[in-house]
Amino acid sequence: MTTTRREKSLIVIQLTGGNDYLNTVVPYEDGRYYDHRSTVNIPQEKVIPVDGQVGFNPSMGPIKTLWDEGKVAVINGIGYQTPNRSHFRSMDIWHTAEPDSIGREGWLGRAIRDIDPQGDNVLTGINFGRGLPRALGCPGVSVASVGDLATYGLFPDVRDEELRMFTLEAFSRMYGGAAGGDPVLNFLGQTGQDALHGADILRTAPAKYSSSVEYAPNSLAQNVKAISQVFHADLGSRVLYTTHASFDTHSGELLTHAKLWDEVAGAVGCLMDDLEEHGREDDASILIFSEFGRRIKDNGSGSDHGSGGVAFLIGGAVDGGMYGEYPSLAEAEQLEGDLRSNNDFRSVYTDILEDWMGLDAAPIVNGQFEKLNLFRS
Amino acid sequence: MISNDTSLMAHLLRRAGFGASRDELEEYLEMGYDGAVEALLNPSDPGNMPDDLIRRYHVEQSELRDLAGSAAYWMYRMISTTSPMEEKIALFWHSLFATGYAKLNQARSLLNQVDMFRRSGLENFEDLLLELSKDPAMILWLDNNENHGSAVNENYGRELLELFSMGIGNYTEDDVKECARAFTGWTLGNAEYMSIRAAKDSIWPYGRIAWHFEYRNEDHDDGEKTFLGETGRFNGEDIIAIIVKQESTARFLATRLFEFFAADEVTEGGEKVIHEMMATYFSSGYQIRDMLRTMFHSGYFKSEAARFARVKAPAEMVVGAIRMAGNYQNPALGIEKVSNTMLYMGQGLLQPPSVEGWHEGLEWINSGALLERVNFAAKELSDVKSPGVRSIIDRLEASSGDGVLVPSDLADRCLDLLGPIQVSDETRSVLVDYASRQGDLDLTGHQLGDEAEQRVGNMLRLVAATKEYQLA
Fold first, then answer.
1. What is the dihedral of CA A105, B74, B390, B310, to 10 degrees?
2. Do residues B103 and B204 both lie within one domain?
3. How far apart are CA A338 and CA A82, in angstroms?
4. B339 lies in some domain
5. For labeling, which of A371, B84, B133, B254 is most exposed (least CB within 10 Å)?
6. Residue B450: which domain range?
7. What pLDDT is stored for residue A6 in this prediction?
8. What is the per-residue pLDDT for A196?
9. Are the Cβ atoms of B103 and A102 closer than 8 angstroms?
């Protein structure tokens, strides 16, 4: 395995379902916000003030603390031209950096390929959750997908530990035999060994980790804890990804959205504390994004799919602050009743790829995009 | 001793179906190989799980609105059909004419497309291309609703030639333009409204409305066109009639069928079969069923060279293991978790990654996907409560005479009953060692879930985890 220790890692938290920008970074000084959001709004007195113009959702306390420390970049009005309000398609666009055609490769899959072209480390990219977000998918790139770090590996349903060990040993012999003449069986054998090896290494992560930080019992916090365990085990993982859902708040938004952000902000706060405790806060950056924002006007109980949204980049190396303009709520400036995006998401990717991961961004994001300079130089 | 007939029949059923339990295999063996080929190529009443039963359990499979429920709905059909070739050919066309939910937000129209593949997938290729060109999901997927007489959109015209019929290098850029012109005006009813609803993911006010084809003469470019050397005032039908005459089309179709049903790699022996299939394509007037008959009867297909020469696609892995275990014969809550396993392995039904479909063969295999594949099959086939596994236990007991199996018999008989699966000497010796750990197996008087049965389950788990089980 190549040594990629102590290199910069990217942690991604995907907010699936379309996070409501207006109720996340709230333009509480703009009366039009309360006109359009007559029911589904955050009352002025509850907003956590940030810069006199906008404030954070009351559930975002831990993120406000990080903001005060200058570690939070808020990327306003993020999106792409000609917004698509379909969850799947818009998420696809974010994942493949291909707004105009159906892309084949995920942007982070490409990044992983560039970081580790020979696939020497099967843990360069890891998703925490079942399956693989398309962002991480790329032909020929192996990415581990960890549903539960505690049981990750082969035959998780075999409870009898002795039987499981015996079965794993047999598996190892079947896949680890001398390479024969059949290339397909050889490849299967190699991949089986990789899977076993990856699982063995990952299983060592929790033991290598100790921390005084206590993560909440919700699924996101537990996945973020697993990310922290793997990150601090120094396994050469450069991209650590997880998702949280569902932000598709068509109804009952206020309660749901508050709970979701409570979980997100809590998990991010814990992770940053954890990094600091280990003296690693300059080694990881956290990207938080969603496939789109939501309609300006509420529907009486929630809000429907919209366009321009908000993303966050958080970390010790991040140059905190507001990036880009908050899109105007004026009737004439709206796009079919939505906020008009004014920051291309591929600019943020370019910042991350070039200034954080040290990669050539243009071939990954399919073009040249002006950077926002999100990292402290 | 496993007869060659049994091995050959199991091979046929892995390709023209999703593998077969020993009971199924015996039914096909009674027909003989030729009879089995005909039975498979001429699907009759599939006897699949009925809709009224499914809908009692799954609201989302009634409206067929969301992706996960709709993928599970198709999986139910693959699991429960008695005409597996009908589903296999639908999966073939779904992989080749790959249309995805992401852009459409319209599962019902996608399932209608799959139904069209069932109905026409073994028939005349010219008719199939015509149906494809009129298929509403395809029209929206490849933007033919944006292909107007006054403003041509080449997307469908190009892919029809490149990905669906002739293959790149057999036509010019001018042919693409002329082809696209011929398909102007081929759209869906109320296309403008429907495409906005698709892009907005809107279910209001009427839920998802299944689309239908509409030809708009006023939007069609009726001018003269020159396509592949022929000139006329061609419409879409004329273009397809020219496409299907091409030798490149015959080669393309024969090759894709061969790779899907016979072997991932085309060797010299395979090349010969492809030539025979091309000859059949022309002599039969473009009949897909006849091309497949030629392939299934070829010496190459029946030979050892073609056995286990394909990596199982995730759909084959999941559905094959479930059918072997005899599970999910009735609706089960949470079935989406099962069909999602295919997605975790890299093949979500109704959601191919792009119009190019999935990358098949060895590209199915990476460490994450392999972990999912092994864990799924091992769990499915080691559960001694499953009807299929119970039947295997009964057969093991019956075949042993006195109810006692020595370790090598246990390993060999499990390999036989899950296939027959051929494994390397190395794999076999690991299996036998594993069985030897607890000595001879006495199945006399076995009871549900007792230690003797668990030992069979453990053996089946390990067989399902072999390298060889990854192959079809």
1. -40
2. yes
3. 12
4. no
5. A371
6. 383-470
7. 62
8. 92
9. yes
B461 interfacial to chain A (CB closer than 8 Å): yes
Nearest chain B alpha carbon to A99: B103
CA pair distance A201, A235, nearest whole angstrom: 8
Helix (H, G, I), strand (E, B) or coil at B244: helix
The secondary structure element, H or E, covering residue A341 is: none
Query: Any idea which residue has 């067989």 for tokens?
Result: B463
Query: CA of B395 to nearest chain A CA: how many angstroms apart?
Result: 24
**B461/B375 Cα distance (integer angstroms):** 9
Q: Is residue B425 part of a domain?
A: yes
B260 inside domain? yes
Q: Which residues contact B425 (CB under 8 A, 6 or more apart)?
A: none
Q: Note whether A137 contacts B353, CB cutoff 8 Å.
A: yes
Domain at A9-150+217-365: CATH architecture: 3-Layer(aba) Sandwich (3.40)
Strand extents, DSSP E, chain A = 9-15, 25-26, 48-49, 55-56, 72-79, 125-128, 144-146, 239-244, 284-290, 309-315, 321-323, 343-344
Report yes or no: A271 and A247 within 8 Å, Cβ to Cβ. no
Mean pLDDT of A308-319: 97
In 3D, which of A331, A310, A228 has the Cα closest to residue A271?
A228
Residue B237 identity: E
Looking up tokens 């007792």 gives: B450
Residue after which a domain boundary falls, among B306, B321, B356: B306
pLDDT digits (tens, 9 = 90+) for B412-438: 999 999 999 999 999 999 999 999 999
Cα four-point dihedral sign B132, B135, B141, B144: positive
CA geometry: angle at B54 spanning B48 and B56, to 5°? 150
Least confident span in A127-141, A220-234, A240-254, B314-328: A127-141
pLDDT 10s digits, A108-130: 999 999 999 998 898 999 999 88
Counting the structural domains of chain B, the total is 2
Query: Which of A263 and B204 is assigned the larger pLDDT?
Result: A263
Last residue of a domain, one of B306, B338, B369: B306
Strand partners, B230: B227
Average pLDDT, chain A: 94
Query: Touching check for B337 and chain A: CB below 8 Å?
Result: no
B145-195 pLDDT per residue, tens: 999 999 999 999 999 999 999 998 999 999 999 999 999 999 999 999 998
How many other CB atoms sit within 10 Å of the CB of residue B125? 23
Whole-number Å distance between alpha carbons of B244 and B130: 11
Residue B2 is predicted with a pLDDT of: 59
Q: How many CB atoms lie within 10 A of CB A282?
A: 14
ipTM for the whole complex: 0.93
The verdict on B105 and B214 lying in the same domain is: yes
- Taking contacts as CB-CB distances below 8 angstroms, the residues of chain A near B354 are 102-104
